[in-house]
Write a structure and sequence with these properties.
183 residues, Immunoglobulin-like, alpha+beta, 34% helix
Length: 183
């Protein structure tokens, strides 16, 4: 019989509107009866919210679930550091805490910038410069994710901010200031 080991898995939903949280716990019984499974989430810039957690399933959460908006007024979830605490009774001893950085809004902006490049219209040097700039943004985004995964939230925010500024400049300058590049 396995020992109790609580764990969470964060599942990509490929939309800025939802957050996927899956119970990846190991329970002693294949059909466990779990007392008061509770997920407490602190989204960036908002107070913590505690919600019932459906065990052994994927829980899809939106801005209403996180008490950022009211029902019917759902908005994209903010990027930034999210803190999670999953607990079952007795909560003082049976819990797991995780920290992630959400970059879905930045990823969507990056995807739009990348797809906006008309590589057929650009000459070789312009394509190369635009590619280098977008690759740098991508590496900064991945660095932010890695920092958050390794308990370095300040570094994650710093890398995220740098990626966002660089991508905004890239977009504002029409492919990094290259007038021939179609964005």
């Amino acid at each position: 019989m396995a020992d109790l080991k609580l764990d969470l898995l964060f599942v990509p939903t490929y939309t800025v509107m939802t957050l996927g949280v899956m119970d990846a716990s190991v329970y002693p019984d294949p059909d466990p009866i779990v007392a008061n499974p509770l997920l407490t989430i602190t989204p960036p810039g908002f107070p913590p919210v505690s919600i019932p957690f459906v065990i052994q399933e994927l829980n899809l959460l939106d801005s209403t679930d996180l008490e950022i908006t009211e029902l019917g007024g759902e908005l994209p979830l903010p990027d930034g550091i999210y803190y999670f605490r999953y607990s079952i009774e007795p909560a003082s001893t049976n819990f797991v805490e995780k920290t992630i950085v959400r970059v879905d809004n930045l990823q969507e902006k990056f995807d739009n910038a990348f797809m906006g490049l008309d590589f057929m219209e650009c000459d070789s040097s312009i394509k190369k410069q635009a590619t280098v700039q977008l690759n740098t943004v991508y590496l900064l985004m991945q660095g932010a994710i890695a920092a958050a995964n390794n308990c370095a939230p300040d570094q994650a925010v710093k890398l995220y901010t740098q990626a966002d500024k660089m991508l905004n400049k890239f977009l504002a300058n029409g492919c990094g200031g290259m007038s021939k590049c179609s964005c």
